[in-house]
Design brief:
The protein is of the alpha+beta class. The protein has a single domain, classed as Heat Shock Protein 90, CATH 3.30.565.10. The chain is built from 3 helices and 5 strands. The chain has a 5-stranded antiparallel beta sheet with strand order 1-2-3-5-4, with helices on one face. A hairpin with a 2-residue loop joins strand 2 and strand 3. The longest helix is centred in the middle third of the chain and has 22 residues. The protein starts with 17 loop residues before the first strand and ends with a strand.
């Protein structure tokens, strides 16, 4: 676990309160949800915000496993969570090829409504206060900020 950093949003997983690394295997999704729910800080937030956090983590970690780590032998995906009431910041990283956000079409448009991909990003952006996509040094990083009201 990383040290706490007060009064600022972390920019990397190393700056988060809690860090997790998992094998890039879809079966780890259930485990990561359990690991997040076991964090005592979750009890300090409204149920709706923790539900949103779990949905976002599930969607983005699934994407990191299925798309970011698909061709990487023994690939890993990482998750960092930083609690600073009323905000929660989560960061997801993989060592895949990355992507441009603009390449993911709106899944609510009629021509994309039947596609099986792109909904996780869409859901995340609607649940979060802020979402940032960064790719550098062979690392895809998605930083998500949620805030309770």
């Amino acid at each position: 676990m990383a040290n706490k950093h007060s009064h600022s949003n972390p920019g990397s997983i190393a700056e988060c309160d809690h860090t997790f690394t998992y094998p890039a295997d879809i079966s780890t999704i259930r485990l990561l949800r359990e690991d997040v729910l076991a964090l005592s800080a979750c009890k300090e937030y409204q149920t709706e915000l923790i539900d949103a956090l779990l949905i976002i983590i599930t969607e983005l970690m699934t994407n990191a496993i299925k798309h970011g780590s698909v061709d990487i032998p023994n690939g890993k995906v990482s998750l960092g969570i930083h609690f600073e009431n009323p905000k929660i910041t989560c960061i997801i990283e993989d060592n895949g090829p990355g992507f441009e956000r603009s390449s993911i079409p709106d899944p609510t448009l009629p021509e994309y409504i039947h596609r099986e991909h792109g909904r996780g990003i869409f859901i995340t952006e609607h649940l979060a206060k802020e979402v940032r996509y960064e790719y550098e040094h062979n690392t895809m990083r998605i930083l998500v900020i949620l805030e309770q009201h």
